[in-house]
């Protein structure tokens, strides 16, 4: 899965993430944060498990790389206001996707983009998708999600 995310983030013409450089990106999956930082996103990664937070940092250190655009946070993102982020990358269990939909819809701005890995949002219409099966990712625009669905007249 990590390779699929790297490819997605490194494609300069990707439709999955907004590519303007002055935006903030948050990842709820630690392994994607360094890849996002390499391509110019200011990234913040949330992880409460210290082992999962340490792995990407150590891997970067062993490779002799420093990432000034990557910030690792030991916070519970469920208790954090995510409104300052424009791009959100999510890799979560299917059981929490419905609750996460509600949190993101409440907090994210109209121009935000959410990329979901492996497990899609149950109620949001996606704008585009890549991959298949366990390597599938979906991109959602908050502006599209907030649009009222057309009514079906009979």
From TrEMBL:
GO molecular-function terms, A-Z: protein-lysine N-methyltransferase activity
Keywords attached to this entry: Methyltransferase, S-adenosyl-L-methionine, Transferase
Keyword Oxidoreductase: no
A GO CC term assigned to this protein in UniProt: mitochondrion
Record InterPro entries: FAM173A/B, SAM-dependent_MTases_sf
Listed GO biological process terms: methylation; regulation of mitochondrial ATP synthesis coupled proton transport
PANTHER family cross-referenced by the UniProt entry: METHYLTRANSFERASE DOMAIN-CONTAINING PROTEIN, SI:DKEY-190G11.3
Family: Belongs to the ANT/ATPSC lysine N-methyltransferase family.
Protein known as: ATP synthase subunit C lysine N-methyltransferase-like
